[in-house]
Amino acid sequence: MFFERPESGELAVLVHLEFPQNSDPDDPREFEELVLSAGGDPVDFITGQRATPNARFFVGTGKLEELRAAVKAHEAELVIFNHTLSPSQERNLEAELQCRVLDRTGLILDIFAQRARTHEGKLQVELAQLRHMSTRLIRGWTHLERQKGGIGLRGPGETQLETDRRLLRGRIKTIEKRLEKVRKQRDQGRRSRQRADVPTVSLVGYTNAGKSTLFNSITDAGVYAQDQLFATLDPTMRRVELPDVGAAVLADTVGFISHLPHRLVEAFRATLEEASNADLLLHVIDAAAEERLRNIDQVEVVLEEIGAGELPQLKIYNKIDLLQDFEPRVDRDDSGRPIAVWLSAQTGAGVELFYTAVAELLGEELIQEKLILPPAQSRLRAKLYEHNAVTEEAYTDKGESEVSIRIPKPDLLRILSNENIHWQDLQWLEGNAKAHLDDTPDWEQP
Q1: How far apart (Å, rounded) are the C-alpha atoms in residues 170 and 158?
Q2: Measured distance CA(366)–CA(227) in Å, rounded
Q3: What is the largest CA-CA distance in the chain?
Q4: Cα-atom radius of gyration of the chain, to the nearest Å?
């Protein structure tokens, strides 16, 4: 650390206050799960109500005395608030309680620091921690002060606090440059997938909804999956084969949480871009959670923040094995389009329905038809081969090519436009080409 603060350990006193004006309060049970996920040992849970936070200590004088007594009685080494504290409130509380004080943001940062495994993940966590720490530098090292007045005491340089700030700013810039390089590498990989027409499907959802368990069930990736908050931090991507669609890339991302610190969203922007640039979002939801609707709303808020709010989305209601007498099913809208799948990633019940629903959504823009191409359209045949669109070919007695094609609708329209051919002028053998292409706007047609 850049400044002197009390040592901290595992024995923790938890503090949660209710404020009448707060329309979206944090869940005390989730707060306790966060502490346990961080490796803390809660010895007391102090709750209360206030009209507004105290400017100096966040809590009132009576609650402060209760806190001091709890810390002394349990010999606690740490007090954790389920709220965001200002730097001055943290310092004032530490001075009064003589132990380390942590707020909700600091707690989540600590969990992230424990979970990071890859170089990118560690850089992202360090960036978030440094940004958080930059507001909490204090004049704790007065014995190293170098700017003093008087003869023989005037120093040439900066104060220790200024040195700390300069070093910290330099480290932040270094990490930002490295993460920018990671972002460019991700962009390059994303462009390669787009050129190869490989769709990307991203798993998003509230933390501990079962994303990694579902990911392992689909890909056999062996990703770390535990019944704890933020078990997954580093993103994992795997190639999967989907029926009627073919190859796709499935991405497992970090879980969201209510009031996710903005610094974390900023630091993990490179990772979250996998979600914001996906062809389809799989919003995994804990179907057995009492706060299910609230969690859905919190995920939607974060998706809006990272620019993914308008992307196609399929809701995956997971953990139906925890519901009584509940069978897997697919919910559809009025047009018959899948909007939700109910399954259990743990038992595998409903996973086949998941495959079907995802294939429908990704394949609805996929043209799978048979064409008769006369010799005069050999250039079109060559273009279809260039795009790996021909799955089967045979020749008729007239020397015409009978080709089975499988190609995304935009790519087919682009090829036809370049060849100055209208799709209605083609000789379709079978399938639903008319149904797929009849609704094409005039500006898309050659």
Answers
A1: 16
A2: 38
A3: 107
A4: 29
